[in-house]
Every structure is written in structure tokens, then in C-alpha cells.
């Protein structure tokens, strides 16, 4: 957005006690939309801030992706002084968010029932594995709820449940937490009162498979896993083509079928009465798909892409995530932006998939170093430099 136009949540202060993916995603959304998000990271007693900072392998991208546009305040919440600093900060906040396991915030005296007495206008976002109920004390992970919530069953082959290839519940759960915070802010503008907002991994996952739950009730037939399902469309598959390349091709209407047959000169298929409608072609998939695989195998992925593009037929090359860093559309539309990591390294990050006034939401702050904003934040709360040094002492110990 232009520098002259304020972001939607400028002036809103968020204090987050979060780690991993779900909680930080909630804060990232609010931060990208202009809120001041202060990430309180626990230090002392063997803790060195958000443990996600140290993850390797598939977790190496978690911290830099979900903690941009934030400030870091490092406190030892096990000490009276550290907790007092946190409470002073919360007294100035509009939103507090947390995603620690059940009971953690109560032990720290930072639960909603305690904090609302300090700040009645406070909106408290609790991001958990499960909403309150029989499962609420279970330890949940994205993979746990994918397995118990039907998503892994739908993604894998029959008898071979497979988690989705991204942290879908963590990310969406965080997004729903942010949506709840936005709704609570709107309601507070009317009532003057804050409230608790809850979002959960399991319930998020259930929403993802809800279409299959309703399919069963409407048809009386249980949904099959995606690789074995009876597709709603006849041609909706990955095809292996020339030189072993793969491409996804879709023909999802009778009009598209006519175009497809004409451009590839499949006159015999166009004239075949067994293929006269989409539903008829679905029933013919057992012999139709192998026939099309054989006929299309002679073409390159580039040629098929060009033909499908020219004729407005859906297609997609099979792309690995790292290859998207060079995607022409993402680069042209500003979907990628430079981001400086806490070690000074510059990388490209992915922006929220929305525009406001035809512009993408930008990276305004780099990934914060642990405790980087202690001095500025604590001074604003009335602490002297000597007190700040004392509060930050554990950060500087070997």
C-alpha cells in the first residue's frame, strides 16, 4: 500500500506468547495488516527464546516466514520482575495471543480470566489443538489432527494415510485466530469490552474434510481417498508425457471436451456415444484414461501446456516448492519480497495472498533478533536503563 495510506490495523498493539507455526501465523497476519506485534520470548532457565529459531530440516523456514514484521522482547517469565514487565506491556495491549499447551498460561498467571481484570478491553486469542471438550488436554500436532481428522485418509492411497505436504492446519488455524481477533475488535468498537477468541487445529481440520462428511450424508456413500475416488470429472489427472515429464490436465465440461478432442484431432472420441457427456465419460474412465495416457505420451509438457493455455483448458506443470522462487507470475505480481534474517542473510519470502487498494502487503520489519527490541519497549513502559539491563541479563549470559 502507498506510504500515505495507513494499514488497517495501525495503532493496534498485539502481544504474543507463541511458538512453532499456529500462533506465529496469527501474529504474522495481524502484523502484515499493520498491527504492532510484540513477540515475548522466554529466556533463562535453559530457554533461549522461541525454540523454532533453532529448528533444522523441514522446520528451518518456520521462524523466518511467520515472524516477520514483529518485534522481539526477551523476558524471564519465571521471575517476578519478568512477569511484571509482561503485565505492564499487556496493560497497553489490544490483543494477546498464545498457543502453549493447556494450563501453561494459567501457571504463569497470564490466562484470560486473570488478564481481563487488568485490561477489560483485552482480546485474548487462544490457539490450541482442540476447542474445549473431551480432547482439549491432548497434545496435538498438525500431523496428529490430520490423521484423526480424516485428511490423511483422504490424501493417501487406500490403506496408506498420508499427511498433506504443508502445515495446513497450523497455518489455517492461525488465520482463523486472526479472523476471530478481527471480529472481536469490531465487536469491541460497539460494546467497549474485550473477549476470548479460540481457534484449534482439530476443528480446522474437520472443516477441511467437511465436504466429504456432507457428501456421505447426501449420497449415503463414504468418500474414497483422493487417489481412489470416483472423480466428478472424467479427465482430471496427472499424465506422464514425453521424456518422463509430468503434467496435470483437466477437461471438466462438455464444451471443454469438444475443444480438447478438436485440438488434438480425436475425432473418434468425439463421435463415440459412450463419451457423450461428462457423467458418461466418468463411467468410461477405466478404459478412457489409459487410452488418453497413451495418446498424450508423445507430446512434451511444454507443448501440452501451450495447447491447453491457448484453448483455456486447465493445466499445471508439477512444480517443487523451491522452483516457485523463479515463478514468473509471483515475480511479476510482487508475491515475493526480500527479507533479512536475524543473522543478516537476505532471502525471498512469500507475502499474504491478498491485495489492498491493488497493492500487496509489504515486509516492514525484518526477522527480529532475540530481545532486539527490549530497550525501546521497556523504556516506553517506564523502565530505567539499569532496570532494563537487569531484566535482559539472562540474554547476555554465556
Could you please describe the fold and organization of this structure?
By secondary structure, the protein is an alpha/beta fold. It has two domains: 13-208 and 327-396, Crotonobetainyl-coa:carnitine coa-transferase, domain 1 (Rossmann fold); 231-321, formyl-coa transferase, domain 3, CATH 3.30.1540. The protein is built from 19 helices and 14 strands. The chain has helices at residues 22-32, 62-66, 80-90, 104-108, 112-118, 142-148, 151-155, 168-191, 201-208, 210-219, 254-263, 267-271, 278-283, 285-296, 301-310, 328-333, 374-380, 385-391, 393-396, and strands at 13-17, 36-44, 47-48, 70-75, 95-98, 123-128, 195-200, 235-240, 246-251, 315-317, 336-340, 346-350, 355-356, 359-360. The strands form four sheets. Strands 1, 2, 3, 4, 5, 6 and 7 form a seven-stranded mixed beta sheet that branches. Helix 1 (22-32) crosses helix 8 (168-191) and helix 8 (168-191) crosses helix 9 (201-208).
